[in-house]
Specification:
This protein is 76% helix and 0% strand. By secondary structure, the protein is mostly helical. It folds into two domains: 2-90, Hypothetical Protein Yqey, Chain: A, domain1 (Orthogonal Bundle), CATH 1.10.1510.10; 99-149, Arc Repressor Mutant, subunit A (Orthogonal Bundle).
Amino acid sequence: MIRDQIKTALTGAMKAGDKPRTGTLRLVQAALKNRDIELRGAADPPADDVLVTEVLQKMVKQRRESIAMYEKGGRAELAAAEAAEIAVIEEFLPRQMDEAELAAAVEEIVAETGAASVKDMGRVMALFRERHAGQADMAKASAAVKARLS
């Protein structure tokens, strides 16, 4: 489980005295704890690895947005700190699809659903999300689906 890998990595970082890595892993654990609290009493909570992957992807997205703002504001040192956090977080994410794999997956789902126009994009994206959650950035997948159906 990804959660166990994070816990082990935190212990190792603490023992090694790696403060930036320790801080990032503690942020990850705090975000996971917050998500667990949000889902208390939920009728159908997602599987644990799916939940952890969603949280990690959200954290990476937030940091990428922060990097863009810091670079725009001329704060290279803060952008570098955010990039270092992204590197730590991405260690625990599943391998992401490359462009060719993404295109092949989109093509397969489009053929399977019989989608013909952009109006069918919702069905294609729902199936893509179901099958490939965590393996691809949904913004890139959405752009690929839109390009394919246009």
